[in-house]
Adenosylcobinamide-GDP ribazoletransferase
Amino acid sequence: MTLFKSMVAYFRFFTRIYIPGDLGNELYYLNHGSKFLPVFGLLIGLIEASIYYLCALVVHAPLAFMVVLLADVCLTGAMHQDGFADLSDGIFSSRKQDRMLEIMKDSRLGTMGALALIFYYLFMVGIFTNYVDQFQLWDGYIAILLMHMVGKSDIVLLFYKMKYRNATHGGLGQIWSNVATSNIVIAQVIAIAFLVGFYQVAGVIIYLIQVLFLLVYRRFILKKLGGFSGDSLGGVVPMTNVIFLFSVGALGTWL
């Protein structure tokens, strides 16, 4: 029951798909269901991977992947990309911590945020095209499926002893304050199991690369902002997407 209600809560929160029904305390399922976030990532990945596979049957793989990127924006409302852009505007403003947080709360898109999004999509399409032989049909299907799972498991890893910091009281990121360590461990076990199941040894390497990046990212955010906000939590996903896609393409060539 907790799994089902958590999935409903996550679809409502992370996507434009509204599933009707009374969950009671929805915030409870967003927090305590965090161990299931990789499962939710798999569901989103399943939708987008299926779109890729069907498109790749009739057009070249890079174009099919671009359709997926567009579908992701329509499905999720570009939630993580928005956080990434806001984070970039704040971090690269060269202001003090409080001012950075205020800039991140501003709904307007700044120069650094726009550039961050441009380079994100350039890297995603560029990496996919460069390693296109590693992403044909079924291989591309699996990569897109697992990319979304890894993105969500990466967010969960940042919940560990998370220090929350925001320009105003409240904020979306505060939902995941004090997440149980057991939930974080379960989420990572799920992610590792699927990575190893599909990529074997390469899956372990991919996971370790993600963890190494998250350790550096965590230290950077704590130093720059003094804690995490919703933007710095969700905004990590576009970065890990790029790292994941590059890791799969490169390791597929080397191993």
In short: The two ends are 41 Å apart (CA to CA). The mean pLDDT is 92.
